[in-house]
Amino acid sequence: MTPSERLDATFAALADPTRRAILARLIGGEATVMELADPFDMSQPAISKHLKVLERAGLISRGRDAQRRPCRIEGAALAEAVGWMEQYRKVWEGNYRRLDALLAELQAHKGKA
Question: What is d(CA 86, CA 92) in angstroms, rounded to the nearest whole number?
Answer without folding.
Answer: 10
